[in-house]
Amino acid sequence: MQLETYISDLLYRYECVTVPEFGAFLSQRVSATVHESTNAFYPPKKQLLFNEQIQTNDGLLAHYIADVEKIPFETATEKIAKRVKTLKSNLTQGETILLENIGELKLNNDSKIEFNPSYHLNYLTDAFGLSQYVSPSVTREVYKEEIEAIEKIIPLTITPEKRRTKLYLKYAAIALIALTVGGLVSGNYYVSDINAQNEIAQEEANTQLETQIQEATFIISNPLPAATLNVSKQSGNYHIVAGAFRVEENCNKKVAELKALGFKARKIGANKYDLHQVVYSSFSNRNEALRELRSVRQSNNKNAWLLVKTLD
Hints:
Elements: H1 3-11, E1 16-19, E2 23-30, E3 33-34, E4 40-42, E5 45-51, H2 60-69, H3 73-92, E6 97-99, E7 103-107, E8 113-117, E9 133-134, H4 143-153, H5 160-215, E10 238-245, H6 248-260, E11 266-270, E12 276-283, H7 286-299, E13 305-308
Antiparallel strand pairs: 1-2, 2-5, 3-4, 4-9, 6-7, 7-8, 10-12, 10-13, 11-12
Helix pairs in contact: 2-3
């Protein structure tokens, strides 16, 4: 039985895998590192350790073998014990045991198991796909040190010609600032003058328009007789509601639809849910409102309902 294969599988998921009566393989997370001499970058990983003192059977390895090989737990435990007996015998004879992708085991001078881990596999799943990377060495230029060495040999001096050059630059800067400020002032004056002229022209245009309106007269030779319209304003606290709409445009369409059917439909405003309400009609008398509600439910809308509310 390739016991190391099962141990390797479990090391991806667990930090401790115990081999009963032999020892435990432990994993410890290690951060990414950089080798100073080779400039090699190593990703984070799980460092493997071995502790010979932990030998109690926790059932993890046996259960995993039983599930993979489809055998009873007791049979898996017996196979582990047989493999452990072979490993101990080989170690006693001075052999070095190689567990693939895990490491090497051997006995030291004190008859204790010495473990040398393998670095072929990274058991840290968070670092999956990350590999070792070697960076070329970074060379730093020492211009500053070279300049300091030159200054010691050839000191820097300021000649009168350089002083005059700085004066010229100073006067040129002052002239540039003066021109900029003057341009801003004149520009603001020009904009203000344009705005004033626009206001005067607007006032003259308004005056001419008012004069033309006052001079215009309208004469109607055959005036139409006055028409008297009797408009009845709906009132009352009893309202037969046709529906409530989130979009006011849909509310207006519903009002037009009901008016086309002969109802005195209208909008009564939005409710506390910001829905625009449409009513068939409003009544001051409760009994009249109930009779109309029954008629509306039978002829037009079975979901119509009565709202009792005082409108502003």
